[in-house]
Write the structure tokens for this entry.
Amino acid sequence: MPRPKVFVIFYSTYGHVHTLSKSIKEGLEKTGLVDVEVYQFPETLSENFLQKMYAPPKPDIPIITVDKLAEADGFLFGFPSCFVSAPAQVKAFFDSTGSLWSKGALSGKPAGMFFSATSQHGGQETTAFSFLPNLAHHGMLFVPALSRTDQVVGGSLWGSGTVAGSDGARLPTEYDLAAAAAQGEGFANVVSKLAA
């Protein structure tokens, strides 16, 4: 029997969420229970605008398409908090998934989130909470992350995360990355049980 397939799909302007996605993938693969594919959400900003924002080049990772989305058995979505919500790139992509919604193509599939924000109270939990309607309308099952309370971290039960700082200079800590790997590992266990 083939292993269930998990897609890690992220949007990252300055690389913080991309860095977390690597640890998420590591945690998923550590279990040996799922196959993992990593994708980026399509960019909606022009290259000229991104250069003016001093955004680094995008990593060499495939862009997710609506049709491809239906192939996965589970999803971990990553994105920065943008005014306590998912960024426009993520919203635009989900706005284009009506064909999947009309067929119920994502119904019953587990999904989780990971994210970054500029500060400790920069909207990470609200960002996750405001993204839940996308999952609910598709009939997807939200899988929370493991809770770690022994240190200050960027994430929560809503998902692993990092605090980027107001200028984006603060990188994910080893603790943030360990929490992301633990989220991936826990998510793989859930997906494999649901697939069985």
Summary: The first helix runs from residue 16 to 30. The CA atoms of residues 15 and 56 lie 8 Å apart. The chain has a mean pLDDT of 91.
